[in-house]
Amino acid sequence: MSYKIGLANISDADKIIDFIKNNWKKNHIVTNKEFLLYEFGDGLNLNFVIAKNEYGEILGLIGFIKKSYGLSVPDIFTSFWKVLDDVKVPSLGIEIFNYLRKNIPHRSFMGVGINEKIIPIFKLFKMFTSEMQQYYMLNQFIDEYQIAVVKNNKVGIANQINSNLKVLTLIEDTIALESIDFNRFSSNIPFKDSIYIEKRYFSYPIHKYDVYSIGDNGIIVLREVYVNNSKIARIVDFVGDISLIPKIAGDLYYIMVENNYEYIDFLNYGIKDDILSIAGFEKLDYSNDEIIVPQYFSPFLRENKKIYFFADTSNENFIICKADGDQDRPSI
């Protein structure tokens, strides 16, 4: 079979949409062309590597998301990796993956939400794989949890944090972002610049996010989730010095109690347990069902679920948050 692999452009948008409809999910949010162009549009290109046959039909693809737009070699995260089930080229998926690694300039290359069954593939390429860690702070003033499952009220209840230092300030618009020099964090992996922050959290056409500044030392991003006539907040991103997390603990607890959230959770990899413990967070124990902190909300699944990732970087000091990649993007 004759085929060619390369970077997609805007003219490929309709074919990508048809491919996703027919081979992934018919009503996936990315099949909305306006959203597809918003999420993956990059000038005249689309951030997809695609394989086409001699008739111009897509045989397979892999998407990617840039974490910064001001760097020539940004950190990137994968999104969508699929080849036709009946494709006659058994190695095509690997070829597409390798094309992305070798031909799309990047500093680090990661993916969140990978299928546990294909972890051996990443290990074959000598990539680091592991599972994200989920931390939570339960609201002790909730009488009956409708989202979380708390079988023993004495298990996993964070101590009330009385110190409210008013460190966090809600950022109402992108003008306030100008006071934060994100370039100070350029050594962080992944590095997220102000262009990415604005696009991902202020102009995003689907979810609404609450972005808080930590003085001029970074930001923390929360998203409210409402289900079962109750609500929670999820920390989906953190940009800045992680040693500041304990200093904003009082503010986070106040936000949780003031808004009557059942809990605040924080899915991440790379932030040490002791930092989050000091901030009043408990680490979710996946082997124990005394506490259930759901991972999936559309549709809602009241179960603990592990999220796996891979990282292709020589730097071991990286931090991945829930909104990296496509884990905080709706699917429909």
Describe what is shown at a glance.
The chain is an alpha+beta fold.
Could you characterize the architecture of this molecule?
- The chain is α+β, with helices and mostly antiparallel strands and 332 residues long.
- It folds into two domains: 3-107, 3-Layer(aba) Sandwich (Aminopeptidase); 133-307 and 317-321, Aminopeptidase.
- The chain has seven helices and 20 strands.
- The strands form four sheets. Strands 1, 2, 3, 4, 5, 6, 7 and 19 form an eight-stranded mixed beta sheet that branches. Strands 8, 10, 11, 12, 13, 14, 15 and 20 form an eight-stranded mixed beta sheet that branches.
List the helices and strands and how they pair.
Layout: E1 3-9, H1 13-23, H2 33-40, E2 41-42, E3 45-53, E4 58-66, E5 76-83, H3 92-103, E6 109-114, H4 119-124, E7 128-131, E8 133-138, E9 149-150, E10 168-170, H5 194-202, E11 210-214, E12 218-227, E13 230-240, H6 249-258, E14 263-269, H7 273-278, E15 282-283, E16 291-292, E17 296-297, E18 300-301, E19 308-312, E20 320-321
Parallel strand pairs: 5-6, 13-14
Antiparallel strand pairs: 1-3, 2-3, 3-4, 4-5, 6-19, 7-19, 8-14, 8-15, 9-16, 10-11, 11-12, 12-13, 14-20, 17-18
CATH topology (fold) name of the largest domain? Aminopeptidase
Beginning-to-end CA distance, first to last residue? 34 Å
Work out the helix count: 7
Q: Report the CATH C-level class of the largest domain.
A: Alpha Beta
So, CATH architecture of the largest domain?
A: 3-Layer(aba) Sandwich
SSE string, helices as H and strands as E: EHHEEEEHEHEEEEHEEEHEHEEEEEE
